[in-house]
């Protein structure tokens, strides 16, 4: 029985690629140095899978930034502003598209479906001249082959690539991106032909958009694309891989009728209803790559249950045509549990990271072939039983408090307009008030202090002293820049979710459980294994300390319950909304303690609220109801004079704007500049927004420093659709990934732009 892995984490077990990328970007190492690190990581990944007995090992899933940007490079679809003149795309052009450069901004970045991974959105139009401009897929196949590993090259499918793209600036928004299919298919044919010539026997096309709500025209594009590719694909086994949700019956029918396709990869973890479609109709002689091992979470597979599912499928598709696989790429999980030396033994027995999931896939394949490892299965069953019965998982008081939430919508008693009036009397802010989103640059010295404190190398007194000094530096800088509402810069936090999870019960933490978010940015998601509560205040000391250093309003900085949920590895033994309500109650306690401590502005970030939106429209309403309710629970008890902010970033918000309004925050800051001010279109179309709002005026994920004039122009565009008295001026997101040499001039220009507009507005009266 064969086994398959959809994709694998790229960063390395100790984030080797992250450090190599950042060294290259900082001009401390060469392109050759970066390529050497990358080649070493690829080699170890392929060898690991081969040694584990995996038959279908993927190649071209490694990326220096993301796989969609790799496809943009492959197709030569470089926007003109980057000055690319043809030929093989090098690092300069590639990273300029991802990160921008001194003269031009980066391309838009958005979330990869409903994950915390991001991709660079292709900008396309009728005049794009596509050309075969990156031979990465073929080069990596040959690289693996030279190492003795015959891989399955993976390409982002042509239809998904176009459906994930957007019309370039200046192109009509109604432009049909699918009309470009005839222009990109010749390049796919060139790649396929080269892979065949190099000896490939299988090829994998990732077409994850098949799980979305697609219309007949979009489904027809898949039929047309693979019919066109059929003759070129002749002689190859072709796998179409889908993931993250069920297929609709229409999408499933389209998939199994595609020309020239040998196999179908289906997510049977998040797409359990797809099994019913397989039972109803599976084409004879085709392969089913059954995704029964979860690529999105870190819980050990219930091997007995999965084996039962596989045996039922085997009876339908045939013994020789069933391949055991992961539900999606393992990119979304941590790399290797063996690196976790500090995890509690009981909790560790419940987990499986990418390396362990590879072993699970192969163990299931062998069991299905009659070579069951009885000891491995018995150990797994013991761990499953331990998790179900462990007293550390359940807290009756928490469950009772969460159950008591039913029956109330937890809205603040006064409407937002009256609250804003009360807050303005207390805060006395100018029009177009300026603020930042929370974090300030995380210097090497600051990271060293936190690291040494965790390792007990410095005392708590010395740690507190160092953090206070950093807060004072950030406060002084903001006062010098004349920012209106300040932040303390979050020097005590490595990560906005990890920091809170470490102080909440029901969470466990890893040492090296890093997961790539975008580019070199990695996060270490907490593991929610049990009921959640807050044993003691988490941020009050630091916020109060910061407020004591200034007479200006200081924001208390919290992460919201939905974002903590969506950016954690969440327990899978109860509905997600129940866990979210528990987190909301914990954050509510913190909000009320901050208010008692004299903090008059409290930001509760919900950066990931949109990210968690289900891929199916039919499931949106239920999710948004409990997600928005969870946010309101956190601040329903504060006074009218306490101003509640929230922040959202890097997703398409236009389709949930009414739910954002229903959150009933006093002020929302929201990513806007990198997405080419897409957010503003919803207000141009007549949506009325009465609360405070700060669409981001510059992109913090690029090292580029915007001018005062550029920021003023953005503010003017906002004033065309938003009332002056509700508009805030702020960056797109937090500043932790930037250097002070970039942050100071950018914020200086931002404040100057706000003051310029205030003067112009005053003189126009």
TrEMBL record:
GO terms for biological process: methylation. Binds 2 Zn(2+) ions per subunit. Pathway: Amino-acid biosynthesis; L-methionine biosynthesis via de novo pathway; L-methionine from L-homocysteine (MetE route): step 1/1. It comes from the Eukaryota. Zn(2+) 2 binds at residues 658, 662. Residues 3-316 form the Cobalamin-independent methionine synthase MetE N-terminal domain. PANTHER family: 5-METHYLTETRAHYDROPTEROYLTRIGLUTAMATE--HOMOCYSTEINE METHYLTRANSFERASE. This is 5-methyltetrahydropteroyltriglutamate--homocysteine S-methyltransferase.
């Amino acid at each position: 029985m064969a086994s398959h892995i959809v994709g694998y984490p790229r960063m390395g077990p100790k984030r080797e690629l992250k450090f190599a990328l950042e060294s290259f970007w900082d001009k401390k190492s060469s392109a050759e140095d970066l390529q050497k690190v990358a080649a070493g990581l690829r080699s170890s990944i392929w060898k690991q899978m081969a040694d584990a007995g995996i038959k279908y090992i993927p190649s071209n899933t490694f990326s220096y930034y993301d796989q969609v940007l790799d496809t943009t490079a492959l197709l030569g679809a470089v926007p003109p502003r980057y000055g690319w003149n043809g030929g093989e795309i090098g690092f300069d052009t590639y990273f300029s598209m991802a990160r921008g450069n001194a003269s031009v901004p980066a391309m838009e970045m958005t979330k990869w479906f409903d994950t915390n991974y991001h991709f660079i959105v292709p900008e396309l139009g009728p005049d794009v001249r596509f050309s075969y401009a990156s031979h990465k897929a073929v080069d990596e196949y040959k690289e693996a082959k030279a190492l003795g590993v015959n891989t399955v090259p993976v390409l982002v499918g042509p239809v998904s690539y176009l459906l994930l793209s957007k019309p370039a600036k200046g192109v009509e928004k109604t432009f049909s991106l699918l009309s470009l299919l005839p222009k990109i298919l010749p390049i796919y044919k060139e790649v396929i032909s080269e892979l065949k010539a190099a000896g490939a026997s299988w090829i994998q096309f990732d077409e994850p958009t098949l799980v979305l709500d697609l219309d007949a025209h979009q489904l027809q594009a898949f039929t047309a694309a693979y019919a066109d590719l059929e003759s070129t694909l002749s002689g190859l086994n072709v796998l179409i891989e889908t993931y993250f949700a069920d297929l609709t019956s229409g999408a499933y029918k389209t998939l199994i009728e595609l020309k020239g396709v040998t196999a179908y990869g289906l997510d049977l973890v998040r797409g359990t209803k797809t099994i019913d479609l397989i039972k109803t109709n599976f084409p004879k002689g085709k392969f089913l790559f059954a995704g029964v091992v979860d690529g999105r979470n870190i819980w050990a597979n219930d091997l007995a249950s999965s084996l039962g599912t596989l045996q039922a499928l085997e009876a339908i598709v045939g013994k020789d045509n069933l391949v055991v696989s992961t539900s999606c790429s393992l990119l979304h999980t941590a790399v290797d549990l063996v690196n976790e030396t500090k995890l509690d033994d009981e909790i560790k027995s419940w987990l499986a990271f990418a390396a362990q999931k590879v072993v699970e896939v192969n163990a299931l394949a062998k069991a299905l072939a009659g070579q069951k490892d009885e000891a491995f299965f018995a150990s797994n069953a013991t761990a499953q039983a331990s998790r179900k019965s462990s007293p550390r998982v359940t807290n009756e008081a928490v469950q009772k408090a969460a159950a008591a939430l039913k029956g109330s919508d937890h809205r603040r008693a006064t409407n937002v307009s009256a609250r804003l009036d009360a807050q303005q009397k207390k805060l006395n802010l100018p029009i177009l008030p300026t603020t930042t989103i929370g974090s300030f640059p995380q210097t090497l010295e600051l990271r060293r202090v936190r690291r040494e404190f965790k390792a007990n190398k410095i005392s708590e007194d010395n740690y507190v002293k160092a953090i206070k000094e950093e807060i004072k530096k950030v406060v002084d800088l903001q006062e010098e820049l004349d920012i209106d509402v300040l932040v303390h810069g979050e020097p005590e936090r490595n990560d906005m979710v990890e920091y809170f999870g470490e102080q909440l019960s029901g969470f466990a933490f890893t040492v090296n459980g890093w997961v790539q978010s975008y580019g070199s940015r990695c996060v270490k998601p907490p593991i929610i294994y049990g009921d959640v509560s807050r044993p003691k205040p988490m941020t009050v000391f630091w916020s109060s300390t910061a407020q004591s250093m200034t007479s200006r309003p200081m924001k208390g900085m919290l992460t919201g319950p939905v974002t903590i949920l969506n950016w954690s590895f969440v327990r899978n033994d109860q509905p997600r909304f129940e866990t979210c309500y528990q987190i909301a109650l914990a954050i509510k306690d913190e909000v009320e303690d901050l208010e008692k401590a004299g903090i008059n502005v409290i930001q509760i970030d919900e950066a990931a609220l949109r990210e968690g939106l289900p891929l199916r429209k039919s499931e949106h309403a239920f999710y948004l109801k409990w997600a928005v309710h969870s946010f309101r629970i956190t601040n329903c008890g504060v006074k009218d004079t306490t101003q509640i902010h929230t922040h959202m970033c890097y997703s398409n918000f236009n389709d949930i704007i009414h739910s954002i309004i229903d959150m009933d925050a006093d002020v929302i800051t929201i990513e806007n500049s990198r997405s080419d001010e897409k957010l503003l279109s919803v207000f141009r179309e007549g949506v009325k927004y009465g609360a405070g709002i700060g669409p981001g005026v510059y992109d913090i994920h690029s090292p580029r420093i915007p001018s005062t004039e550029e920021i003023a122009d953005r503010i003017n565009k906002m004033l065309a659709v938003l009332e002056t008295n509700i508009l805030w001026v702020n960056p797109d997101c937090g500043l932790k990934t930037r250097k002070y040499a970039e942050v100071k001039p950018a914020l200086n220009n931002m404040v100057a732009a706000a003051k310029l507009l205030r003067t112009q507005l005053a003189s126009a009266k």
